[in-house]
Specification:
The chain has 7 helices and 11 strands. It is an alpha/beta fold. The protein has a 6-stranded mixed β-sheet with strand order 1-6-5-4-3-2. Strands 9-8-7-10-11 form a 5-stranded parallel β-sheet. Helix 3 packs across helix 4. The protein is globular.
C-alpha cells in the first residue's frame, strides 16, 4: 500500500485535473450514479471540535475511498491546521486498500477547485477582477485556483486584519506574478469585482447587495453555523447553485 504524506500530495496533485475530476464526479452525483452516504461525526465538546467520516464510490472515476477528517477550530493561528485527516483509497474491483494519503491539502484545494469549476461554468467569460474576502487557508487556495479558469488581471484581498490582508496580497503577487493588492474594507474589495470569493467564518455578512456589480459571480464557502457571508439582498437576487 502506498503511503503519501502531505508534501508528496502537494507536489503530485494537479489542480487543473482536480477541477476536471470534480466536474465529472458532480455530474455523476446529480445523475444518481454515485454512492455517497451522508457524513457522520463524533463530537469533542471540550474542544468545540469533531471527527468526521466520509465515504464514496464514483464508478466513472474508478474511485472508492474513505476520508477521516478532524476539525479543531482552536488550532487556528497555531502550528497545526484546523483541518487534519487522512484518505484511504481502495481498489473498486477487489476492495483492497491501495493508498493512504494526507487529507489536509486535498481538503483545502478541493473546496477551491469546486469554486473554480463553478466559476468556469457560471462566471462571465471576460471576468478579470477577483475579490478575495478572508486571509486563511481557503483564501489562499481560491486565489490560486480561480486564475486557472479566468484571465485574472486584478486581485483584491480584504480581511478583518489589515496586516494579514497585506501579507497575503504580497504573497500572491510574489508567487503568481499577478497584480494583487490589499483593500481597506470588504466593500472596497467587492465593488467593481467580476468574481467574489467569500472564504470567512464571519458571523455577519461580508458581501452586500449594494456593493455588487451587475453580472458578478460570487463563491461563498465560509463555514459558520452561527453566521453567514451573504446578506439577504444578495441571496434574494441571485441564481443560487449549491455544490
Amino acid at each position: 500500500m502506498l503511503i503519501i504524506d502531505r508534501a508528496e500530495v502537494q507536489a503530485l496533485l494537479d489542480l487543473d485535473q482536480l477541477v476536471d475530476a470534480l466536474g465529472a464526479a458532480m455530474s455523476d452525483l446529480s445523475e444518481g450514479r454515485v454512492s455517497m452516504p451522508g457524513r457522520m461525526a463524533a463530537l469533542v465538546p471540550g474542544r468545540d471540535a469533531f471527527l468526521a467520516a466520509m465515504v464514496s464510490h464514483v464508478p466513472s472515476l474508478g474511485a472508492l475511498a474513505a476520508k477521516l477528517m478532524s476539525v479543531f477550530p482552536e488550532n487556528a493561528g497555531g502550528p497545526l491546521p484546523t483541518h487534519q485527516g487522512a484518505i484511504l483509497v481502495f481498489d473498486p474491483e477487489s476492495g483492497e486498500p491501495v493508498a493512504l494519503m494526507d487529507a489536509a491539502y486535498i481538503t483545502a484545494v478541493r473546496t477551491a477547485a469546486g469554486s473554480a469549476l463553478a466559476t468556469r461554468l457560471l462566471a462571465r467569460p471576460d471576468a478579470s477582477t477577483l475579490a478575495i474576502i478572508g486571509t486563511g487557508v481557503q483564501a489562499r487556495a481560491h486565489a490560486r485556483a480561480i486564475p486557472r479558469v479566468r484571465a485574472i488581471d486584478d486581485i483584491r484581498v480584504a480581511g478583518r486584519d489589515a496586516a494579514k490582508a497585506a501579507a497575503l496580497a504580497d504573497e500572491l503577487a510574489r508567487d503568481s506574478g499577478l497584480p494583487a493588492r490589499p483593500a481597506a474594507s470588504y466593500e472596497e474589495a467587492v465593488r467593481g469585482a467580476d468574481i467574489v470569493c467569500a472564504t470567512t467564518h464571519s458571523p455577519e455578512p461580508v458581501v452586500r447587495r449594494e456593493w455588487l456589480a451587475p453580472g458578478v459571480h460570487v463563491n461563498s464557502v465560509g463555514d459558520n453555523p452561527g453566521g453567514r457571508e451573504l446578506d439577504d439582498g444578495t441571496v434574494g437576487v441571485s441564481v443560487g447553485v449549491v455544490e
